[in-house]
ABC transporter related protein (Thermobispora bispora), 423 residues
Amino acid sequence: MSTVVLENVTKVYPGGFVAIDRMNLRAEEGELLVLLGPSGCGKSTLLRMIAGLEEITSGSLWLDGRLANDLTPRERNVAMVFQSGALYPHRTVRGNLSFPLEIAGVEVPEIRERVEALAKALQIEETLDRRPHTLSGGQRQRVAMGRAILRQPSLFLMDEPLSNLDAGMRTELRMEISSLVRSLGITTIYVTHDQVEALSLADRIAIINRGVLQDIGTPAQVYNDPATAFTAAFLSSQQLNLLAATVRTPQNQYVLLDFGPSQIVIPWTDPRAYAVSRHTGMQIIVGIRPDVLVPVSDQAEGPTLVGRVRTLEYHGHEWLAFLEAGIPAVSVPQPPDQRRHLMAGTTGKARSLIRRMLGRENGAAAQPPSASAPAGSHRRADLIVRLSSRPAWRVGEYARVAVDVAQLMLFTMDGARIDPPRR
Ligand SMILES: Nc1ncnc2c1ncn2[C@@H]1O[C@H](COP(=O)(O)OP(=O)(O)OP(=O)(O)O)[C@@H](O)[C@H]1O
Ligand SMILES: [Mg+2]
């Protein structure tokens, strides 16, 4: 059992690419912490730094209260399971499973007993005398998992261990991993880019984008109360509606979200009204999950949005409707490109070299994206509505949906929550 603490951990690869930027993170003893983020965001880099397979450029890593930056992988006593279940190809399954016990000097009869018991628990006892290349992907991952368990590590590090498997096998092994690591009580850091896997497996989820921590909390906290627009969008099972609205406070009577063709009132009784009103005259981002929009009649009271039905899509268990509502769309705000940090503290020659490297002679890459002109804001959004059955709408006609104001997610143009999340 082990705690893991990262303090301002940064990774700069040779060539200057900042893969992890001042990461602060803590995994509690026995916790299953999931690192979630898109491809290239730095998940594997982070895991490899914890394992000791990658040097930490700056910052501190503490394992069980001990500064671990300079410990060898062996001294850290971690077991890592990779995406492709890296096994020794010339050893049988039994040989692979026995290996960590042989290294530890365990007696042969005990090795046999422990390997067979675990193989039975992992449902791979039939494969014990076979070589890895004769196994299915799922079986290989079970062997890799078994070998990690037999090492009795203080810490499990798993890098997308299920991503090569088909959906059915993924669900099955996911449940097994969950109950296995919890029954062993071993602290586990698990990397995935699959939000369903993260939500269903984690005690807590850390969401990472471009090497920067976006949010951390229990699955319910980060899903229902996301700290950033990026988190809200990444965890949304359908595309999240991200709309630009101007905040107005007419005669101070209420707070108005002005979408252009339509408006929504936030009454002063709403706990977020004051925080939103501080953005009066400015644009903000309003996030609306497609399932909180409910079709209503034209006579409906309360806040609504209207749009022309562009398409109705059948998805088997649900329908998605795309409404042209004439509201400006906003792209998911990204943290500034890490490469700009290269420019900090550099002068003259170095700067022009970096600019050339980035292919921007004019140095435009050094600028963070403009918060006041979000990419895509000139575009009109399609309002996506999720429905459990086919609506009585016809393509080309106007349709009205009710909006539950309490469920609107409100962000600044750079993607930070306007009303602080409760953690
Ligand atoms: N040895 C290296 N040298 C330079 N850049 C690297 C190196 N290894 C990784 N990177 C870069 O660092 C970034 C983060 O890579 P990393 O493998 O950690 O991402 P990831 O989140 O695990 O992505 P994926 O989900 O695709 O596995 C990527 O842009 C990658 O190209
Ligand atoms: Mg990776």
